[in-house]
Amino acid sequence: MENVEDQKHNDDQPSYARIEPYTHPAGGWGALLSVARNLKRQEVFKKGAITLLNINQPTGFDCPGCAWPEKKDAHAFNFCENGAKAVAFEATSKRVTPEFFATHTVSWLSEQSDFFLEDSGRLTDPMRYDPVSDKYTPISWDDAFKLIAKHLQALDDPNQAAFYTSGRTSNEAAFLYQLFVREYGTNNFPDCSNMCHETTSVGLLDSIGLGKGTVTLDDFDIADAIFSFGHNPGTNHPRMLGTLREVSRCGGNIVAINPLKERGLERFQDPQAPVEMMTNGSTPISRYYFQPKVGGDYALMFGMLKHLREWDIQALAAGKKSVFDRSFIEMNTVGFDAMIEEIDRTAWPDIHAHTGLSPEHLESLAKLYLDAKTAIFCWGMGITQHRHGTANVHMLANLMLARGHIGRPGAGLAPIRGHSNVQGDRTMGINELPSAKLLDNIDRVFGIKSPRHHGFGVVDTIKAMYEGNVKVFIGLGGNFAVATPDTPYTQEGLRRCNLTVHIATKLNRSHLVCGKEALILPCLGRTEIDKQLHGVQAVSVEDSMSNVHLSAGRNEPISNDLLSEPDIVARMATAVLPNSDIKWKWYVESYDRIRDSIEQVFDEFHDFNARVYQPGGFHLEHPANQHVWNTPVGKAQFLITPLAEVYTDKENKYAEQYTGAKVYTLMTTRSHDQYNTTLYGLDDRYRGVFGQRRVLFMNAEDIAAAGFVADQWVDIESIYSDGVKRIVHSFRIVPYNIPRGSLAAYYPETNPLVALSSHDKYAKIPASKSVPVILHAGQAPEHFNLAEAVDPEDANQIVNRAG
Ligand SMILES: Nc1nc2c(c(=O)[nH]1)N[C@H]1C(S)=C(S)[C@@H](COP(=O)(O)OP(=O)(O)OC[C@H]3O[C@@H](n4cnc5c(=O)[nH]c(N)nc54)[C@H](O)[C@@H]3O)O[C@H]1N2
Ligand SMILES: Nc1nc2c(c(=O)[nH]1)N[C@H]1C(S)=C(S)[C@@H](COP(=O)(O)OP(=O)(O)OC[C@H]3O[C@@H](n4cnc5c(=O)[nH]c(N)nc54)[C@H](O)[C@@H]3O)O[C@H]1N2
Ligand SMILES: [Mo]
């Protein structure tokens, strides 16, 4: 009991902002207490238990928190702290009503923090912006759709509209959405994936023929080693910790590759393992922790391959078995020899210069990989959000292919996706670069003529809005104005639109960055009952490991005026395309009909309804596991980018030649109390930060070398070759276990620093994990006082003042 009390103290909402090392394991009592606090804050305690018991159950709803798959033998609780927070935020009793909008002008709301906006509650009514009063006023659903139709029909060219999707959207809504947009005439589908795992999708498509992972949860049970590259499961995929804990307890190696020492990767207490909780024991998660510098992974993987190559030469010379899986390579791949030539050409000092690891550590990492009979590679934003993100993904695949680890039990590639249905939305055709096959199938089934030319992703949409080439922006979920880079430029782009429309559950800043006209359309959330003509409906989602299953909410909708996402899309289509032959309304009467049509478009969705109604749904097989490679050459491809090309791109060169001040590489990342742009609170418990977000994690030697001290306030300025001044003010230095030259701070506060032009060459993901920055001594934000009470209720003021 002592320990429990002790933790309670640590986990109580702080009475003052503080930095304090967190010495407890991740998960455990701390997580449960945090759940309780969030349910209370959102006033969901009465229905909270019921809501939570339905998460990830065969008859409940899919957790909106992340895309980690459910356990097959799900017991009573199959959710985590942060999933519970996501649910609490949606099931909140607070409301944003027409009266709320009548009280506040958009200008006033714009001055409030993101925390305040979302914490105000659920949107209840469709609203239209009135520029005269600077307020949102109620509008009927019919009039809202008429307004959208008027704007879309008035465009000279359908390509002057862009249709954003955020990854919570269900398969059914996404399918209807892409169908509507293609019948309307454009492939402009910016998607949150364009800021997230697009490099994975593009890179794996090149390497193995389909941009998805190849493993299932069962593979984790028998893997010899799990390599975790650049993701933070303790915060972002907490249910994954249970899996890692099992692997670790069964003697499997867990190898973390991350510049930051993340608590969740070090030690973990499973809130679902009562004995461990009672004894306050914890399972060490990471047996090995390697800390490359930010962006060092490409060199690190290059080095791993070079070690394998050298060991291979030695093995063959000694008459031993090759280190590489030669027969697998021979039968299944192309490009191996060219890759080896590139590796041979590259000298060790050049590799070591970029990893941030000592040569000995690099060698032991390579040895761990060599010794693993079966290995799984997991990765997240630390790999994808770089200018060389696609090259990183190619390299992950190279390592796996070289050892024949694809299509073998207990081994394979496991990208850890973010939004709970981001993978499904892509599967359903939300794609600005659709394949000809997809378009042909859609046209065959629906008798329409889909546009063939490719459309805009996020980066190109922003540019086009700014330059006046996109004039209507429609967002199915998400928070485009805040999640995207180069904030002032992006927001100006949105303001220049003739019409901006947001389909959303909660108020956010994107709704306040209005085009000349603007609409907010409130929709049902995952947790809510969706009743249509044929009764209560379920939607389907696809998790990170390609399992497709149903999700059905259990709560009464928070307002009678909400429509479901499929319904909103169908009504929009009916209004915009009066001559359409597609029976939009008929689809919404029963979502089974939508699924029947999905089945007709995608071969792998055969018998969709029959299979998805089975408990747990069904799994979409990755062809690579059968050694079927859907690449242009019909084989898996080894693809390698010369090291010099990766590390001396335009921006790296610019940073290297910059003499104004010491240049660091900043990663922008998530705190424990946020879901992307949604802030649940101001703590980052596992990193020891409480009651504040404007912090900068920095190596102690760097702090000293720069003549700074801990707790000092600094301004962060990014330096790009375009010469544009980008700066954010008043961040507090926190000494942290991070390599020299690397820094970390939270997103979205740091998004104004990320240049829109700094993105991966192929997938165009903004490089939000490698921002070249310099630091200036700064000032505390006005009125900020460490001893001041930082209640969640006051958080708004603090964040504002710091702004
Ligand atoms: N609670 C919660 N859950 C979430 C989200 C959330 O915001 N909150 N977001 C969801 C979404 S959309 C996504 S995409 C995922 C994101 O989940 P993650 O992929 O974990 O994303 P980040 O929090 O940005 O953390 C990136 C991790 O990569 C490390 N890193 C940064 N740069 C590098 C690098 O150069 N190399 C290496 N090896 N590591 C690096 C950081 O230290 C950090 O541990 O989580 C999803 N789940
Ligand atoms: N600098 C920096 N920038 C980043 C990142 C980073 O690591 N660093 N990460 C990037 C990543 S990985 C991602 S995925 C993006 C996230 O980008 P987005 O997906 O655009 O942003 P979210 O914050 O997840 O969106 C939150 C909003 O979604 C709405 N919402 C929630 N649930 C529902 C629902 O069921 N239906 C509908 N219609 N709306 C709903 C609510 O109104 C809420 O305000 O940000 C990216 N931006
Ligand atoms: Mo994401």
Model description:
With 803 residues, the chain is an alpha/beta fold. The chain has three domains: 2-29 and 644-802, Barwin-like endoglucanases, CATH 2.40.40; 42-196 and 422-620, Rossmann fold (3-Layer(aba) Sandwich), CATH 3.40.50; 199-416, Dimethylsulfoxide Reductase, domain 2, CATH 3.40.228. The chain contains 35 helices and 33 strands. The strands form ten sheets. Strands 6-5-18-17-16-7 form a six-stranded mixed beta sheet, sandwiched between helices. Strands 25-32-29-31-30-33 form a six-stranded mixed beta barrel. A five-stranded parallel beta sheet has the order 12-9-8-14-15. It is globular and about 75 Å long.
Note the gap between the termini. 42 Å
Q: Give a quick account of the main beta sheet: strands, pairing sense, barrel closure.
A: 6 strands, mixed
Q: Measured on Cα atoms, how large is the radius of gyration?
A: 25 Å
Query: What's the CATH class label of the largest domain?
Result: Alpha Beta
The unique ligands bound to this protein are: ligand MGD, molybdenum atom
Query: What is the average of the pLDDT values?
Result: 89
Q: Helical proportion?
A: 25-40%
* Total of domains: 3
Question: Spans of 5+ residues with little confidence (pLDDT < 50)?
Answer: 1-16, 785-803
Secondary structure class reads alpha/beta
Q: How much β-strand is present in the residues? A: 15-25%
Shape: globular
Tell me the CATH architecture of the largest domain.
Answer: 3-Layer(aba) Sandwich
Total strand segments: 33
Family: Belongs to the prokaryotic molybdopterin-containing oxidoreductase family.
Domain Molybdopterin dinucleotide-binding: 665-772
Protein name: CbbBc protein
Keywords: 4Fe-4S, Iron, Iron-sulfur, Metal-binding, Molybdenum, Oxidoreductase
